[in-house]
Structure formats: structure tokens, C-alpha cells
Design goal:
Elements lengths: L3 E7 L5 E7 L17 H76 L38
Antiparallel strand pairs: 1-2
Length: 153
Amino acid sequence: MQQEVLHLNYNEFNELESYEFDEPEEISTVIEGFFQPEDIEKNMAIKKLNFTLCIMLIVLIAITTVSYYFASANEMTLNDLSKETMIYNYENTDLENKLDKLKSFNNVDTSMQKNNILTKAKQVIEVPEVNSTTSVNNNTVDSKKIFNWSVGY
């Protein structure tokens, strides 16, 4: 069966020319050689497997991102708690120093009461004011006076 094929072509004067010719009955192949037949089922299985693995990878990336967010949020909370703990430790140290100071004053006071080094006055004596016109010389201090030191001072 022969088919007539009409080819349109323009000549050098831009006039339309048409040619009619018959195609040969045998169609020759352009490339000759041995080619393996294409396995469509195998390609489809590979595409499905690749698609499934891509979906699994995307899900794992999403889970990792969410986990990292929660881990970093927990780390920030731990850092805040650590800072608060450090502040409380410094305050505790300061309060311990004050307590030690008060305890030492209390120890000195109790030891003074036990040893009766200081006695309270039993009676208050009122003295009238003295008018003196003489100047007092502060440079004359008795250097032979012995000062008794008490424990803890």
C-alpha cells in the first residue's frame, strides 16, 4: 500500500512549491544493534521503592527537627535553673557568713556572762555639771596602764 505524501517547500523566491512522492514499503531502522528489552514492571517497582524511601526520609527529618527543638528547649530550661541555683548558692553563702558572725557574737556574749567580765551597773548616779575653765592636756596618757584583752577580740 502506497501513500502519497505531500511535502511543502519554499523556493528561493518565497514561492510555495509542493512535491508528491511515494514512500518505500520497507521502513529501514536508523540504528541497528542488540538492545535489551525494557522491563517496565521493574522500573515501576524501583520508582515505588524510591518514593517510599523519600517519604520515610522526609518523615524522619521532620521527627529529628521536632526532637531537636524540644531538646534545645529543655537545655535552655536547664541553663535557667542552673543560673538560679548559682544565685541561691551565693545568697546562701552570704547568709551563712552572717550567721557565723552572729554565732560568734553570741558565743562571745555567753562567755562574757559566764566569766562575769562585764557587770551591769546596779544604780545610775546623776552628777551635776562642772564648769571648768582649765584646759585638759590630752597628751599626758599613762603609758604604764595595762590593757586586758578578752578572748575573741
